[in-house]
Amino acid sequence: MQLDNRKKEVLHAIVDDYVSTNEPVGSKSLIERHNFSVSSATLRNDMAELEHLGLIEKPHTSAGRIPSDKGYREYVNSLMTIEELSPREKLEIEKRIDSSVDEVTDLIKNATYTLSETTGFVSLAMSPRLKKSYLKQLKILMIEPGKALVVMVLSAGVVKDKVVRIPNFLSDEQIMKISGAVEKNLTGKPLDEITLVTVETAGKGAEVPEPLLKQVLYEAYAAIKQADELNIYLEGEHRMLSLPDFSSLGRARDLLGTLSDSGMVAGYVNEMENAAREQGNDDSFMIRIGQEITLEGLDDCSFITATYNLTDSVSGNIGVIGPKRMLYSKVISQIDFVKKKLNREIQKFT
Amino acid sequence: MQLDNRKKEVLHAIVDDYVSTNEPVGSKSLIERHNFSVSSATLRNDMAELEHLGLIEKPHTSAGRIPSDKGYREYVNSLMTIEELSPREKLEIEKRIDSSVDEVTDLIKNATYTLSETTGFVSLAMSPRLKKSYLKQLKILMIEPGKALVVMVLSAGVVKDKVVRIPNFLSDEQIMKISGAVEKNLTGKPLDEITLVTVETAGKGAEVPEPLLKQVLYEAYAAIKQADELNIYLEGEHRMLSLPDFSSLGRARDLLGTLSDSGMVAGYVNEMENAAREQGNDDSFMIRIGQEITLEGLDDCSFITATYNLTDSVSGNIGVIGPKRMLYSKVISQIDFVKKKLNREIQKFT
DNA sequence: TGTTGGCACTCGATGGCATAGAGTGCTAAT
DNA sequence: ATTAGCACTCTATGCCATCGAGTGCCAACA
Q1: Contact indicator for B212, B165 with CB cutoff of 8 Å
Q2: For chain A, which has fewer Cβ within 10 Å, the N-terminal or C-terminal residue?
Q3: By the CB < 8 Å criterion, does B101 face chain A?
Q4: What's the pTM value of the predicted model, to 2 decimals?
């Protein structure tokens, strides 16, 4: 992309103006609002050039230009400068992310909510990916005949549990035996190395009749696998309805329809994460703009996520989904600050 | 309300027509669509009367009539007849409410989702109100220094837990002692009789230094109280955007904005429930129409809930929020059927 | 007294039309 | 390479006439 300096400035100005006014921007208003030392005719030439390069486009012949996805991309990649938040804004976020909760999960939800409030967009967080974490503790608790609770504590301090069904006539003692055996052999094991076979061998020590034992172990295994599932927290979907970008009912409907399938969104974030990792792209932010997003109904959105760290090897994503016509630098700073705050607060749990 | 038979029929017809067409209905089209044995002029007189009574109204002078809130109310109270669902529809619901889940909570979520899908509206369920249930089991589990898990099993088979912070230097044994003492003295107690004092006396037996004991007991108490909190599941908010009734962005925004505050909705449902109980109104359905609903942005909605039973004394609500222009009889049957199915499935857990 | 046909009137919706205004591309001059 | 100027394009806006569904009321009728 060989853009001379002025063309860069022009693109920069167009993005800025369009983001703040939501109107296609023309050569004249560009001159008015910015201190270009050239005439509008010159800008027109530049703009024609930029359009030729696919960076801007016009809704119709006699309208101003708006940035294309590619234009936003160029802006994000090499034009914008990120500014820090004001102390006031920082304070606001600090205040909202309340550290008095008892569980990491609540803290993450809290941060997600805050992010949605401060940006005014949809925010989301992924529960930590646990593959790389190991089992710190596992207990099977008898609840009542036929029902037990599998409680797992993972290395990152995350507690998960699941009610499972067990054979009716298993006694409390028998369950405790199984629990003890499994715990002894499984603690310290990385989650992704735990398979049905591992669990079954781990349980061998318990003196419990074979078929019963097997069933309990299977349930325990299923509980562990479930704990490993991805979880996503989405917040503030309704805020999108206040944006002029989604004043068309159809667009809004498609967007919220897609977002309502949180599993789908979670899958997409995961894909993004994997793609970024494969490319060795260890930029702290992942940004997808408009058509780059393969989810239906998000053509007019941008997707920005950052990675928060629970431990060195366990991390999750937090970010926002907003209109692609957004103040990128601002939103990125906001996400960044929330992420940092979250990281700091998480320390207290590990 | 003294309405002669024909006026009743007219109101009935107006509601039906308006619900199905979403257009104000005039005297002429009323004649066309229904077999009235009188002329349109007569109906006009009747309609003027109905309007005088406040049962119908016109958007503007030269338009047809639409039912007022009061009109819908009359319709719901004494005009409509509830028809059973077709076997096909029943089957569809039966199929969707999957009973293979392990926890009551999942079953309820499942039913909520199904209800939203079949009605096409927002559906909601309240977690069971637990006041009248008792503590079946309570265990405190050491997770790691400074952290414990309080696991509670309630009479209805509901399992709740909460991670709590405890003094760092408490040992596993000490926690087990406390757990044992509390459990021994608290099991069987109705939830609403459990206070901080009760918990503290219950823990007396444990041989653990006083201040430490007190802190743990306080946390346990807090966990129990939290288990008692109301929980609401809302589903399908985005579906409202597909309804012509909310084709105005403003309305849709207000509605979804309010619904996004699920705590507020939960509070409202609870109020409704209490109000109904005070009036000795043991109708199985609670219906609020339009302005009767005090939540902001729900003026164009109706709120219909039914009560499902977990045990004889523990119950919750399940229902829908839809446009007040809805097929009441149909929706009521749908809720009713889902409720019954839910009740049946719940049996398997208790 | 309740019912009916007739009629004038109301009011939103629709579509045509002219106008204004913002913006463009192109050309010729600097 | 830049600029002034100009013809052209297209949307948005407002106005106006028309259409049609629906109403209210009155006088006549069973």
Answers
A1: no
A2: N
A3: no
A4: 0.92
